[in-house]
Amino acid sequence: MDPxxxxxxxxxxxxxxxxxxxxAQGKIGSGFDVSAAVYxxxxxxxxxxxxxxxxxxxxxxxxxxxxxCVSSHVExxxxxxxxxxxxxxxxxxxxxxxxxxxxxxxxxxVRGGTKTPLLVAKVTAWMSHLQEQGLLDTSVWxxxxxxxxRFVALFQRLCQIAQEQADNYRLQxxxxxxxxxxxxxxxxEIGEMFAQLHDTxxxxxxxxxxxxxxxxxxxxPDSQTQLLNKLLEIPGVLLAGVPGAGGMDxxxxxxxxxxxxxxxxxxxxxxxxxxxxxxxxxxTGLTCSTTPSHxx
Length: 296
Known about the structure:
The chain is of the alpha+beta class. The protein is built from eleven helices and six strands. The protein has a four-stranded antiparallel sheet. It has a two-stranded antiparallel ribbon with strand order 1-2. The chain is globular, with a radius of gyration of 22 Å. The relative contact order is 0.14.
């Protein structure tokens, strides 16, 4: 593999892994985890699932006889190659992003579990019903889509300010990291940006709770809500939420400093139900390292 990992190489790895994930997951899931592993932090836009669903490839078991198996392998390999390199994939237009300096992403494992396929199936059925009734564009789904766009715009603006006003950003971030969100707006433009991000994400969580109620699913279970709200009372905690499809699997936090992250870990330890996962945000994604040769 090319040590420099060109975009073409990343696209190839992404497309193959994304299709394998799609098949293994029973054709559900957004595929964000695969995309993040390949490209690093990003503004994720899901590939069209209809594109994957329209391509089915015959396996050795399905082929039957040896003669059919050989024939299907040759034809299948050719078809699969064309599929993987198709320009209908939209993975080549990934919009990269990053955490501004000093912000820390934390992930906690919750002692619970979620039947994600069942949860996703209920939400999908709910969406299909709204589409049939012509109500999707006025539903909480659209409210969430609009809120997500506002959040992305605010976050990207914060990244820009952190670069353009590095010293001012560093100073105001340090001050806000020792305060709760209600006091951030008193700390200038950076504090105002932190407060807007915090409030916008609270609105997103409210929308997810409403969608959970309408679909009969625990996207953000009440027990998780209690944990998250308690974390948001800690000075220096910017965001707290439930990742992925939701449920009882995990929660995430973004803090404004290492000291704030330490306070979150202390709260997790006291809760007795959350264990830190030793992961961190990464801008790069997939990398390729060469192993030095050793004499035999």
